[in-house]
Design brief:
mainly alpha; 0% strand; globular
Length: 419
């Protein structure tokens, strides 16, 4: 389980050796060791600007590392990413240009991030910066800063995330990269949201939405619509959030992004009590989703929907599916899991256990500065002793005026989605 106060990254690549130790006797048990060897090979590129007596040594080490990856790793995306790094490292060494390693390293960092291995992803990104330094192309330097910021944000390390977003914005401004400037502003809006400053989060998202529309950048418009929808939902304006989330879903071009919007739409619908539509959206996310965090969130929300319907069997089934993911959950997801678990237990009359789960959720949220979540948990804790009907989270309910037409539109759209 993730610690309430995560330890800072120590020596380079130790995080992969720690992973290797945890993975002993598991099917991908050699990945941590293989990644450590690959990144130690990449480290050598930092001194490879000029020909020298160590050229042969690099060649031998590259060959041995590649052979280890080929022989020891199970076929799959992870193995492919490591093997690509080895090939690119050899090419970059021959060209005396460490920056050429960037595409393969960014792809590896993205794979690790998508698999919720955040510390490992940061290690890869940090290795790329240390190794390539000033030889990184402008576009790659911007990508490293943006990706570092995003991973730090997912780890709820908001100061580090904000600094990285600011660095990305500066690099992008110098390069005349309007898209990356707007991406960094979207990222900072997400930092405000994570810290619980919903007013600033909404303001930054709306400003990006305005600029994205003016410049015709559809994907950023989709992200900004998404951000406005999430922020409005967090402020309790869920009926107002739904049109933004639906528009984001239609604007996104990549399926991965569309699934994220679909998840948020399902979450909003569950808060409104439209459980059938919510479960339809969330089940599609679970079936189609490939990103660990997205599927984790969808499973947690399906557990929440089951408790709302007082479906004890469905609740326990979803809970069992969530439990196997706990070790890989980021702090915000882990806190949400314990919150929704506590709510569900209260709905089924298990108040002592519910109190314990809510306290655990609150501890995680407070330790990681997740203020919006922390405040929400506190409101639920206050109301729990007086709870009789056990609508613990105070869902808004389908009686809300003015949103029936929106629900009908969304329900029709969801019904038309193929599984």
């Amino acid at each position: 389980m993730l610690e309430a106060n995560p330890k800072p990254i120590g020596l380079p690549h130790v995080v992969f050796l720690e992973r290797a130790a945890r993975e002993i006797d598991s099917s991908p048990g050699t990945f941590g060791q293989a990644a450590f060897l690959v990144l130690r090979l990449v480290d050598l590129l930092a001194t490879a600007h000029e020909p020298g007596p160590n050229d042969d040594l690099f060649g031998y080490q590259a060959a041995a590392t590649g052979r280890f990856c080929n022989e020891q790793l199970e076929p799959g995306a992870a193995a492919e990413r490591l093997q690509e790094v080895v090939r690119n490292a050899s090419y970059a060494h021959r060209r005396r240009a460490p920056g050429l390693i960037a595409p393969a390293m960014l792809a590896l960092a993205t794979h690790l991030e998508d698999s919720a291995y955040y510390l490992e992803s940061l290690d890869v990104l940090g290795t790329l910066e240390r190794t390539a330094g000033a030889t990184l192309a402008s576009a790659h330097a911007i990508s490293v800063a943006l990706q570092t910021a995003r991973v730090e944000r997912k780890l709820a390390r908001f100061d580090a995330a904000d600094a990285a977003y600011e660095r990305a914005s500066g690099l992008a401004t110098v390069a005349g990269d309007t898209v990356s400037v707007l991406q960094s502003r979207l990222g900072r809006a997400n930092v405000f949201w994570g810290r619980g400053n919903l007013v600033e989060a909404e303001r930054w998202n709306r400003e990006v939405l305005r600029d994205a529309r003016a410049t015709g950048i559809r994907n950023l418009e989709a992200h900004a619509e998404h951000g406005v929808g999430i922020t409005l939902g967090a402020r309790g304006q869920v009926p107002d959030a739904i049109p933004h989330l639906l528009k984001a879903y239609h604007l996104y071009e990549a399926e991965a992004d569309s699934l994220i919007a679909l998840h948020e739409l399902g979450f909003a619908l569950s808060r409104l009590g439209a459980v059938e539509s919510a479960e339809r959206a969330l089940n599609i996310v679970v079936r189609r989703g490939h990103m660990g965090t997205l599927v984790q969130n969808a499973k947690i929300e399906l557990m929440h929907c089951a408790s709302f319907r007082r479906d004890r069997v469905g609740f326990e089934r979803c809970r069992a599916e969530c439990v196997v993911e706990v070790e890989q959950m980021a702090p915000n997801i882990l806190a949400d899991y314990h919150l929704k678990l506590g709510i569900g237990l209260a709905r089924f009359g298990r108040f002592d256990r519910a109190v314990s789960e809510l306290q655990h959720a609150h501890q995680i949220a407070r330790a990681h500065g997740l203020h919006e979540l922390e405040f929400r948990i506190e409101r639920i804790q206050v109301g729990l002793p007086d709870c009789v009907t056990v609508d613990v989270e105070g869902e808004i309910g389908t009686e809300q005026p003015g949103w029936a037409a929106t629900l009908a539109t969304v329900s029709t759209a969801l019904a038309g989605l193929s599984d």
